[in-house]
Batch of 2 targets.
Target 1
Amino acid sequence: MEFQSCFPIWNKLTQAQQDSILAGLTLRRIQKGAMIHNSSLDCTGLLLVKSGRLRAYILSEEGREITIYRLLDRDICLFSASCILRSAQFDITIEAERDTDLWIIPAEVYRQIMEESALVANYTNEVMAARFSEVMWLVEQVMWKSMDKRVAAFLLEESAIEGGDRLPLTHDTIARHLGTHREVVTRILRYLQGEGMVKLSRGMVELLDTKGLMALSDI
Amino acid sequence: MEFQSCFPIWNKLTQAQQDSILAGLTLRRIQKGAMIHNSSLDCTGLLLVKSGRLRAYILSEEGREITIYRLLDRDICLFSASCILRSAQFDITIEAERDTDLWIIPAEVYRQIMEESALVANYTNEVMAARFSEVMWLVEQVMWKSMDKRVAAFLLEESAIEGGDRLPLTHDTIARHLGTHREVVTRILRYLQGEGMVKLSRGMVELLDTKGLMALSDI
């Protein structure tokens, strides 16, 4: 799979723009658990996931985490190049949830093309609007949904990403996605097990009743 | 005050773009409390506040509210024209907090200019990135800050906007900004009054100790 076939607007770029991107492009393998990007000062560049999975999250001063969005194959991460957007004033951390291969377009290369090309600037707009929608969804979840509904929704999302019902997840991992404490997740998972919706074993959550989870999660 | 002097990139537009905007532009007065925009289906257009104050918020199914951002003089509202951004998939409501005069650029006029102009597309990007930063700030507040800190921060923000220490605010209004219940706000305001930080009277909160409120709010 080539970069050219993964980057959505490739065929609409000029030859000079294509040459400039290819000259700066690097392909990197990131080990599971490694951090790729760590603050707004850190201007890694635009990331395009070739294969694998990234997680963008924020950290509290006390070290609590909440996932803001996740990036799968062919997804683009803009905020790892937030230096090209003067008004993007927030710190986000990006780590690999799986071993991940990704392309990096240097921030300066992308900025130059975006400045001259309405097409690229509008494409960037759409990427940002998509992330914006995800964050607005998160605000709604955090504000209006109880944690049991959020755990149910997370398990269903995870099952969709993994393509199966046996999910290799610790309670701590779920807590870090949802911005809560491990004990809270453990209590909710035990409740779900009591209701016959999941089966728990070490480092594993198995979904037994996805319809029940969907009803609970209000999706 | 003219539209031309309020719209930040006016002088960089071509004559044709300027003509097209002026031909479609309308100036409207919105009464305090009136709704300007009510869902993603409603594509009002790009709003530019001439004078007054707007509030963008989301609603829960149960009718609870939380303020996402506020717009003051010369601020631009993009999501009232979310139809020009296919990937913006969320419902936001915009209402006037004060009697507000605003210009409306029809969505279709703006979309056409944005499509052809890298300058306008990049300007739009910056406006969206600024709102994104506000929403990320909100996520941090909601996730990591207790409600007493958030009430203190809100009172300080309100004081900065109003330019004074006597704030005409009901407990219900504060609750609707912060996405909580009136009773919670009342309890916290009484605590702040007990600590000598505010003085309460009907429909009014007076700030007595802004340093104390700043220390509490962690700003």
Target 2
Amino acid sequence: MPFLSEVPEIRFERPLFSLILGNTMLSTVPGISGAGPTPEKTLLTPVLDSELIATGAIRSRPMKPNTPTGCPTPAVITRAMMDLLGMEALFVNAGLAHPPVVPCLDLYGEPGGDPRVGDAVPRAREIFIQGQRAGQLLSGLSDLLVLGECVPGGTTTALCVLRGLGYPAKVSSSFVRNPVAQKEEICRQVQETVRSRRITDPLQVVQVGGDPMMAAAAGIASTYRSPVILAGGTQMLAVAAVIGRMGGKVPPLATTVYVRDDPSAGFPETAARLGVQVTYVDPDFGAIGHHGLARYCEGEVKEGIGAGGAMLLAALLGKSPEEIRARILSTVTGFT
Amino acid sequence: MPFLSEVPEIRFERPLFSLILGNTMLSTVPGISGAGPTPEKTLLTPVLDSELIATGAIRSRPMKPNTPTGCPTPAVITRAMMDLLGMEALFVNAGLAHPPVVPCLDLYGEPGGDPRVGDAVPRAREIFIQGQRAGQLLSGLSDLLVLGECVPGGTTTALCVLRGLGYPAKVSSSFVRNPVAQKEEICRQVQETVRSRRITDPLQVVQVGGDPMMAAAAGIASTYRSPVILAGGTQMLAVAAVIGRMGGKVPPLATTVYVRDDPSAGFPETAARLGVQVTYVDPDFGAIGHHGLARYCEGEVKEGIGAGGAMLLAALLGKSPEEIRARILSTVTGFT
């Protein structure tokens, strides 16, 4: 298997790697999200992941950067790549439940609510406009934007938004066993709202059933004046769908082969339907020599916080698959 | 009079103009600050000024960007320069009393307190470290940093910190009549605390009597890897003093001739004592044809939110004094 399924044809001199952080209260519903040791603590994951990427360690709280089964957070992969490249990630706060511990470009949004009890993102349009301002700002500072995200519970909001926009999509999960029935039930209620209120505006679909990251990402990516690569799995497909439905140019996407190979997600089909060009990154974690990373191959975690895009960026900047894998292994070993 | 008193010898290709926003509760003490229509509303000035610079208008609240006497906020000057240069300012939130309405790189600090009732910036060291992280981040995105600030009441905290560090400094004011006696009385109490607690660490002086902007600015400027220009008056001299006392390289500074010519401030003397190289910008507002801007020459406002540094940056980027003055006049006319 090649390291990259295909190499995007882009030229750049000043790449920027940015990660949008957000929450949806859906991640606190038991069973929905594997991105944290307990449902309530999934809300902290964007804060801890960004601390790990920015500082190289989690010191603000006594928590480990692993799933209960010992599978390392994808933030370790992203950290390893920033380290290898001598780069700093720019964090964007789209709406978090807990205050971040490292600097963030803050859009002053709020965490998304449970769409079963009311609009999930009442200020979706304002967050989109803030995203446009951020995209404007970042255009002056860089000529390639690799844009990832961290939103625990975000595959459920992705399902709600993709279906709300009329796509017969499925979505991935950080669990080995995707809680499909539970997601479908939440999605059914969102679709009912979309239908009964006759919503067609993509930002209104985000308002009803999405999360603040989506509004921020759509604003940033549609305003940024140089090439954008969306870094993530089905959550970034939802962002691509929103951008496309708003009449914008749909950016290409980078993710891991573990997302592609999730049979419950149907990722390649949805990407093709949306016209999203995808680069799949295969870091061959099965042979890397770490039992926690090997679990990615069994379908745990799979991707997150821009890990796939960070590996792609390292490759585009001339790092070999061997260097990339070696740095991931040494970084993850440093945490365990 | 030349437009620039001297031209800093720096080479750069990717300049970044950044403004640190913060509050001190001292600005709500009647008589201290002219940066707002009432003492309580001075707390809003950084939010409204940043909105004006980023969006070209103040829409979030029914307030005018002028002093009660019709003197325009220096944010109009900074907006005019960003516009002329096709640049976006990066706002840094060091600690505000009101939430911003445009995106800010947020350091998650708090507004400074009144030093007469307790430590002004209890988390000064944490904000400094957050500033270091921001400086690290901005180093990867630019090769010149022009760093301004907006802190109503900040000349009083500047006096407290300069004196607390042992400099026999005076400071400027946005009022024509500098409320010197009132500032001196606050400063006397801070000096007592510094003496009784035997404080010599510059960040502890900021903690006792400064404001969050100072901690943020010191962290950013001392970590940034390319040239920095501090854009502002006596408040930035306090930042330079903190950096110097911490053993860092003292950056050069840019401000207006209206600060230099404030007899109550003794600006050139303090700058010389601190070893700060200063470029004075003379936009000749007396002859620009606007009665509000002409008041700058009578000593009102004088400087603020990086206006002097923004004009310097425009000149460094090849704009003529005529272009600069014309754009300021057309911008200010658009607001009145």
